[in-house]
Amino acid sequence: MKPVVFLLLLQVTGSAHSRCFCQVKGDLDDCDCDVETIDSFNNHQLFPKLQTLLESDYFRFYKVNLNKPCPFWKVTSHCGLSDCAVKPCSPNEVPEGIRASSHNKYSKAANEELEECEQAKHLGAVDVSLSDETREALLDWNKHDDEAERFCVVDDEESPDSQYVDLLLNPERYTGYKGPEAWQIWNSIYEENCFKPFTIKRPVLPNSFQCTSGSEARTFYSWLEGQCVEKRAFYRLISGLHASINVHLSARYLLDDSWYQRKWGHNVSEFKQRFDSELTAGEGPKRLRNLYFLYLIELRALAKVLPFFQQPSFRLYTGRAEEDQNHKEMLLDILQVARSFPLHFDETSLFAGDEKEAAKLKEDIRLAFLNISRIMDCVGCFKCRLWGKLQTQGLGTALKILFSERQIEALPKSSENRPSFQLNRQEIVSLLNAFGRISTSIRELKNFRSLLAEER
Ligand SMILES: *[C@@H]1O[C@H](CO)[C@@H](O)[C@H](O)[C@H]1NC(C)=O
Ligand SMILES: *[C@@H]1O[C@H](CO)[C@@H](O)[C@H](O)[C@H]1NC(C)=O
To answer: What are the annotated disulfide bridges (predicted)?
Structure first.
């Protein structure tokens, strides 16, 4: 169904529903895909499976250093904003297999902390033994981490400042972190890290701290169109990430904060402020389209990385063999589903030009991405910092995968040879969780579509 007629019909109604969504349909630019196919694929096939996988111990514990100083400017901490605080796990909460090297820390302080940190009860009995083989496997992961091919700063896992965080206890939701500081983060990403000359003004929403005129927006988009497909893709990925975060904040808004209850839920008016084409001078729907673009890129990475996880030597190691095996099967199933998606974005159209030029571009993009992951240390709100770091690392891992196609295909079927492509646990956890966020955002758009339709 080519939705020209359909589109016209919707435009006539002029409701908030159509202002948010009538441009968010049909074919996406720079790829052979349409929004409707992604919606139904994600909402019915991928999303439910992914949710289950991400609740497993392997994927819910993310090791992160939230205490790195901001390398670019002075940050005022938002520790006081309680909705922003992140509860780290005390070591005993993390399954033995995952924390591998840091056992035997049963200090009084750790025990007290345990009570504070909401206990993850279902962890149950933990097998504390580590076979030699596993220990070796874990060491192997670290050894193979290839600094040169990284798109993202990976926190030093051994740093005393790195902590395990239970992602299920720290959901991404509305935190109250906005205003000039939050704006500065996004502004420096877009202004200083997206290949944009200062003379070209980026379109910003009418209610933010600057205002853009229609002619500036037009200049911006014609500049963007003039960019090579790679730099355009880069901009769209960042914009898609931004949109995804805003969808989450609108879907998990703090609706009621009284002494007897705290209620989180959909705030349609917040959503409209961010995505209604009228309220955003046409920007909102473009951002939502970028969200779909980001989805496709990460989906493609998942499809490509399948051979890495199919290696018999690969394990989702937590120390409980049977569970680990089940979760590995669940993961492989998800990657197979990702592979079955009919309209994959074709990244051979990226970096396909003259070899030398392509290598330079790839390097430029890698460096810009690296820098953006450092900007995440400047996010004042810790919960936002956590999810910001996780999502940039996940996207960085997706890019690493997309540009390592040959190495992944060359992975030996047996575990004997030294593989030339590796992902460490942090990269794996961030890749799947970052995709989980985007997948949730796409699913949430369905909720907002119905909520807005009800408003009519
Ligand atoms: C990294 O980002 C900061 C903050 O936006 C910016 O000042 C700096 O120029 C960027 N560095 C590079 C190498 O892009
Ligand atoms: C929804 O968000 C708007 C801001 O966009 C805010 O003014 C309003 O109070 C929120 N509604 C609820 C029920 O919290």
So the answer is: 79-84, 117-152, 381-384
